[in-house]
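Side project, low priority. Logging it here so it doesn't get lost.
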Amino acid sequence: MADRSSALLPSGLTVPASRSERSSTRFRRLLDERPYVLAPGVYDPMTAEIAMYHGFDAVYFSGYSFAVGYLGTTDMDIYSSTEIADGARRTVQALRKFQLTMAVGDPDQGIPPRRLEIPPLVVDMDAGYGNVFNVQRTTELYVNAGVAAAHIEDQVTPKRCGHIAGKALVSAGEMVGKLRMARAVADDLGSDMVIIARTDGVSAVDAPETTRGLDLAIERGLRYLDSGAPDLIWAELPTSGREPAIRFAEEVHRRFPDARFGFNYSSSFRWDKDPDPISFEELGELGYEFIFITLAAQHSASLGIARLFRGLRERGHEAYVTLQREEWAEPDLPTKSHHFFSGVPYHQHVGKAYDAGRLGADVKEDVPEETRV
């Protein structure tokens, strides 16, 4: 697609034409075009913007990330559908704004405009937060928020993280009803939002069926695909071992050769201790076309924050001086200038066009070079 101008940008600057494309449509196109779509897990608008800056095709907003980032608690259905839907809405809006701010760059600092695509946002819908009518309401909230895809799992409500013991499943029929409702709401709103069906059958301790383990997950996956409602199937696996992922894909493909899968490169696994961790490329070849790392941003951010705070306690001001040295040594780290990252140049230039008081590009403060960020 060719670039396009925008009334929200100074004359002569453009953004990708895909800005006008529905995010769910873009996500479907990426699934068709790519061997796989990789989405790092984010927990707020800022982490989503960093993923966007570095060119990821999609971003993933997990319930666990939201629980930790929004409430500081664990993933056991403690938040409501309206809370996570609002978090998704704010994230989508932030990505759209970020595209504009990066399209301006920072002329005063010699930073050229940057052309960024808006990554589709894939959001956790947990177990639907209740019955099919809760799914109806949540799906409507997600579609209106601009969410590209959502996944629903077959746990009872209240659910728990797929890697916390004690999971119980609703009947396959109830889960199919939720999937059909999500699809019906999207269709009613004229949306092609991607629906992902997740089964926790592999490690569930309670389910209506007598089958257990991977066989139950395969059986559930086939039943969900039989309904025609989901676009992708995801079996939550209990370890990093490749064998269950291979068998699940092979067994489902026997009946549905064109089936697409989601894969959680879970932060709950010690991939660093796996002697031969499965690669993204291998997963893509198996049909896992959507790959995501649930708590990628949370673990990365926590590591950096913990190191800084520990340093401040141990070394005082020198710890923060060291942080800034490292930041400003990075050639392509947008957050080292919080003014640039948050869009001050954009607001100055567009503020002048809209006659906003004290926001024009010609409003400058003469400050020493060493204080400028």
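Brief comment: The two ends are 35 Å apart (CA to CA).
Revisit when time allows.
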